[in-house]
Amino acid sequence: MLARRAAELAKRSIKTTAKAQGLRMAVSMLDLTTLEGADTPGRVKALCAKALYPCPEPLAQPVPMVAAACVYPRLVPVAWAALRDSPVKVASVATAFPSGQSGLDLRLRETEAAVAAGADEIDMVISRGLFLSGRHTDVVEEIRMVRAAAGAAHVKVILETGELETADNIRRACDLVLEAVADDDEINHGDVFLKTSTGKVSPAATPVSVLVLLEAARAHARATGVRLGIKPAGGIRTAKQALHMLVMVQETLGPQWLTPTLFRIGASSLLDDLIRQLLKMEHGRYTGMDEVALT
Amino acid sequence: MSGADRIDVVKTGKLYIGGASPRSESGRTFTIEDAKGRVYARMAQASRKDTRDAIEAARAKGLPKWSGSTAYLRGQVLYRFAEMIESRSEDLAGDLQRTGSTAAAARKEVAASVDRMVSLAGWCDKLDQLLGCRNPVTGPYHNHTVPQARGVIGVVTPAQPRLLGLISMVGLTLVPGNAVVAIVPREAALQAITLGEMLAVSDMPAGAVNLLTGDVDELLEHLGAHGDVRAVLGAGLSKGQRADLRRAAADSVLRPVHCVKFAGDDWVKDAVVSSPWMLDLVVDHKTIWHPAST
Questions:
Q1: CB–CB of B13/B190 below 8 Å?
Q2: If phi over 0 gives left and psi between -120 and 50 gives alpha, with beta otherwise, what is residue A256?
Q3: Could you give the 3-state DSSP secondary structure of residue A59?
Q4: Nearest by CB: A287 against B60, B227, B248
Q5: Are B251 and A288 inside 8 Å of each other by CB?
Q6: β-strand B209-214 against B229-235: which pairing, if any?
Q7: Looking at CA atoms only, how far is residue B189 from chain A in angstroms?
Q8: How many CB atoms lie within 10 A of CB A26?
Q9: Which of A197, B14, B19, B60 is the most exposed place for a label (fewest CB within 10 A)?
């Protein structure tokens, strides 16, 4: 069912004005990410410059800034310095990303340190080891504690759907996140995100896994009125894939979710393709790969 | 071939893009008739999007591998390719003959194609010596100019000679390490399919050669205007087509358009077609300064 529905939604053809609008929307929802062992302050600065000015030339219709730059905790100060006067948020992975295989105290301290250094958003990983061994209440408790440690920062909960094997497991993991936020009376729309993957495991944000997350968010909104954010990440490299993600959101959750406060796409090279497509629409010809700066 | 109890199998040709043989994204096909007007093969008719896919495959897949391989290896791969043409010479001659050539002309064209590939294979590791030089400069420096691959090159192959024209234009472009996106006119589509079949099992990296069969008029503009195409080499183009191509490519000085006009016999002459001056059209010249000891 899920696979069929996802495939059905991916058939939608998006052209001309709708495409131009969709591409700009996708740019505005991007968490521009660099999560490599080889990341340097210089690289993060370049990424932030691109987050602020995604398009190498001015277009008739302006191209928005991306939603956030997503980096490792050690590089948060660099990103913060580059983005502090802008609406672009600083997101940091934490809690022993990407495996989550550290003691909870260390993971909580990492979260606190990232927030103290200036992170507006924390991308946490759940302990897939705990989840797969059936210790679900421990996972719920972990999410609660990380949220407490993150304070005012928004928390995106990475389920790493590629390691959860089945769609049923993905939904179960979503339900644990819903459970962890259920008793929070002060929660606002978009304070907590469901995020598919770290980007370090394949498969990552498959259409089916994203659809499961969207349906979980729909169930939660119907039950409580609170809108959780959704963030597919990993393996989204083409503008076409991004537009299909937007179609899935529109068709599953409705237009009120099509805002950067409730929907994000985690990616790095995707931005290049989005910009190339926008330039193609502007000039009527394809730009060379060398003409759009690669991060 | 066809007996009363047997139905002929009509050949279904596809495009050759990124090492795979997809149908046209547009779903369009055209037919090739034999000399008696019977349908001999059905071919995929390439579209704008196929052209784009081919260019992206050439840029992302074929170019890094082919231009990154040593000149010596490229020579070996092209020479091996000449062997493959030789071993399929009966097929190739049969196709030419069935669609218009005389038996003698077909055999001659296939033989010339093998020879052309051998000639081109030889150029791979000799190009630097001929097109490169040491420039006289004042001061304690060595100053060298060396030829290198330009990148993805758009090629338009001629309607005649079908096989020799195709092999010459594609082979020529491959010599310095360029990746090729070739538009092949309907007349030569059958030859392009056989070439694609051979390429698929050769040592040529996927994406180094991409073959699009169809209407030259329709695809010319999309080939010429793509930012990843670093030169266009065309043969057999009309005056109007040449003008269209130059207009499409005019937004960048990095994308020169070269249109060759060979008369009938010129195509078989190595001194004309696989000459260093032809190869010069598909290379970039890089100049290097290096400190000298004195």
A1: yes
A2: alpha
A3: coil
A4: B227
A5: no
A6: unpaired
A7: 26
A8: 27
A9: B60
- Residue B249 is part of which domain span? 11-289
The residues of A carrying an active-site annotation are: 123, 195, 231
Nearest chain B residue to A276 by CA distance is B227
Encoded amino acid at B233, one letter: L
Q: How many domains does chain B have?
A: 1
Give domain status of residue B157, yes or no: yes
pTM for this entry: 0.86
Contact A285 B59 (CB under 8 A): no
DSSP one-letter string for A9-52: HTT----HHHHHHHHHHHHHTEEEE---TT--HHHHHHHHHHHH
The ipTM is 0.77
- Residue B245 resides in a domain: yes
What pLDDT tens digit does each residue of chain B (294 aa) get?
555 688 888 889 999 999 999 999 999 999 999 888 889 999 999 999 999 999 999 999 999 999 999 999 999 999 999 999 999 999 999 999 998 899 999 999 999 999 999 999 999 999 999 999 999 999 999 999 999 999 999 999 999 999 999 999 999 999 999 999 999 999 999 999 999 999 999 999 999 999 999 999 999 999 999 999 999 999 999 999 999 999 999 988 889 999 999 987 899 999 999 999 999 999 999 999 999 986
In a domain, B37, yes or no: yes
Here the CATH number for the domain that contains residue B118 is 3.40.605.10
DSSP H helices in chain A: 2-9, 16-28, 41-52, 76-83, 104-116, 128-132, 136-150, 167-182, 207-224, 239-252, 270-283
**The two structure tokens encoding residue A142:** 């972990």
Which stretches of chain B sit within 8 Å of chain A by CB? Answer: 52, 55, 59-60, 225-228, 248, 251
Cβ contact B211:B195 at 8 Å: yes
B155 occurs within a structural domain: yes
Cis bond before residue A98 (omega within 30° of 0): yes
Amino acid letter for position B115:
D
Considering the domain delimited by A2-291, tell me its CATH architecture: Alpha-Beta Barrel (3.20)
Tokens 């069929």 correspond to what residue?
A4
> How far is residue A101 from each of residues A75, A97, A125, measured CA to CA in Å?
21, 8, 10
**What is residue B59's DSSP assignment?**
I
